[in-house]
Automatic annotation (TrEMBL):
One Pfam family named in its UniProt record: GST_N
Domain GST N-terminal: 2-83
Protein name from the UniProt record: GST N-terminal domain-containing protein
Length: 213
């Protein structure tokens, strides 16, 4: 327990990833539940921590980190050694963990944000039905391509212990289904196993709590 960790960001799957990692690692942290598009990310205090004015943002003592994937990997690598989580040791395992993490962020999450912007936030970013349809089709193709490999997860990518890559992949698959991308059964089952973990449920409840604590 460090007592010096602060996580900024609420009501966001990207902030939720960091919270899930914190709960898996049983770390105490202060919570600053600011939201996107609320004006809260534009304050001088937050901008000093993250000039990009985006959530999530992690403070660990005098160290500041943004981007949800970087936050999850940092927390696992820094605090996971004596915890019941998977930490890749061999170059092959490290490469595989990176592969799944980059796949989740670049091939899925980044594309899903096109759907979010132009379908669910169209009043801000404008409608773009062709782009939305293309994004759904692309994500569907990518998920179908990895579904046979995900079917072998027992119960997670690296076996019985959850990894940083699992947090990124399972939350992104859930994000995809909520944005009209159909998941194969193997992906739904994998997602459901991961999101049934007590640490995820605790993190989700806190992510949706707008009280500062």
């Amino acid at each position: 327990m460090t007592g010096s960790i602060v996580l900024w960001g609420a009501y966001s799957v990207r902030a939720l990833r960091g919270q899930w990692a914190l709960h898996e690692l049983q770390l105490e942290y202060a919570y600053r539940p600011i939201q996107s598009r609320s004006g809260e990310t534009l304050t001088r205090e937050f901008t000093e921590h993250n000039p990009k004015q985006k959530i999530p943002c992690l403070l660990d003592g005098d160290f500041t980190l943004t981007e949800s994937a970087a936050i999850v990997h940092y927390l696992f690598n820094t605090y996971g050694e004596d915890k019941d989580v998977f930490l890749p040791k061999s170059p092959a395992d490290k490469g595989r963990a990176d592969e799944w993490s980059y796949f989740a962020m670049m091939e899925l999450d980044a594309v899903l944000y096109t759907i979010r912007r132009h379908k669910f936030l169209s009043e801000i970013y404008g409608e773009a039905p062709v782009a939305v349809a293309g994004a759904v089709e692309y994500c569907q193709k990518q998920i179908v391509a990895v579904a046979p490999t995900i079917a072998k997860a027992e119960p997670y990518i690296f076996g019985d212990k959850i990894s940083a890559a699992d947090i990124l992949l399972s939350t992104t698959l859930d994000f995809a289904e909520r944005y009209d991308v159909e998941l194969p059964q193997s992906c739904r089952s994998y997602r459901d196993r991961a999101l049934a973990r007590p640490a995820f449920l605790a993190a989700k409840a806190r992510n949706e709590d707008l009280n500062v604590n």
